[in-house]
Each structure stands twice: as C-alpha cells, then as structure tokens.
Write a structure and sequence with these properties.
Elements lengths: L15 E5 L4 E4 L6 E3 L7 H8 L9 H15 L8 E4 L7 H7 L4 E4 L14 E7 L8 H10 L1 E10 L6 H5 L11 E2 L2 H11 L1 E7 L2 E6 L2
Parallel strand pairs: 4-5, 4-6, 6-7
Antiparallel strand pairs: 1-2, 2-3, 3-8, 7-10, 9-10
Length: 215
Amino acid sequence: MSQSLSCPLCGARGPVHYHRGMQRDYWQCNTCALVFVSLDQRLGSEDERAVYDLHENSPGDRGYRRFLGRLFEPLCERLAPGARGLDFGAGPGPTLSVMFEEAGYPMAIYDPFYAPGKEVLEGKYDFITATEVVEHLFAPGHELERLASLLRPGGWLGLMTQRVISPQAFANWRYTHDPTHVCFFSEVTFLWLGEHLDMSVEFPANDVVLLRKHF
C-alpha cells in the first residue's frame, strides 16, 4: 500500500509505516519526515466541521490568550510597527487577530468554514499566522506554498503545532486522538520546509516555529 501513497507535504511516494493506532494508521515520508494519515482515514468535511463547532475559544478567554502568547510574543518582537498580518485558519472565535490588532497591527482573517472570503488570499502581508492549523491540512504542501507567496520579502510565517519527537512518544501522544489531526510535523520537517520555501527557520518554543521569507 505504501507505494500508492504520496506525502501531502512534498509529494514523495513510498512512505514507511510509522504507527498503528486504535482507528488509524500513520505513515512517515522518507523525504521531509512528515507523519500523516492516508486520505481514506480522514473525516469528511461535514464531520470535520462538527468537531470544529465544538470549540469555544474567544478573545475573552484569558487562558486561551496565554496559550496563543507563545506565538504572539516572539512574533511581535520581530515585527516592524504597523506591520499588516493575516490570521489563516482563525476558527469560530478569532482571538489571535484581536491580540495583534490591540498591539497596533492591522489584521485580515481567513478560515474555510468560518471566514471563507478568499479575497484576503489575494493580498500581500508582512506576517501570516496559523495556530493549531497545519495539523488539520489535507494538502499542507499546497497551502504553505500559497501562504509563503502572500508574504512580502522579509515577511514572517508563524505556525503553532505540537511536534513529533519520536515513535515512542508518538505511540502515547494525545495529539493524535483528535480525528481532525491528519499531519504531524517535526523539527526536521520544518527545516525541510524552510529550505523548500527559501525561508529561514527559528524555534522559539516547543510548539512554535517562525519562518522568514528572504529579502
């Protein structure tokens, strides 16, 4: 079966079997090290939306703000005053965009379910954020290339997602229990992505990566 599978990030064929869970199998790409679930074991769009509708995040939730601060704070330190941003995958209760706007950074938001206006994907931005998003993407290679293309030279792509550490840790990782999580990145994967997109890579926290577009 592995020879018929292709990596949703880099497109390479022939991944190796990485882990067998209670309901899903996980494969790892030999080229970019992405761990992923095959297409036939992913949720349909209606079932996926039903899971997202259960989320209760909002700008008034101080705990959620603290959580997002792991990306917000290091990225703010690197932005010029008035930098314009896009929050990609903002979800049903956009919060990170509110935090940036409060700090003086004008924001646009996009979410395929909750803010589907695609006109914002035709603009240019100084920074783009995607918190707890990339693990949900069915086609992360296409989406991340598109986001990188929207950045101005020197722009930042800030991603928050828990990272793969080892097969042993993966076997007991609660992050895989969410049926909408289908792609799992490691530091090696992000370093591959940075090289592929011609972007520098920084890891300011164990679930945060900042990629910067070269001038």
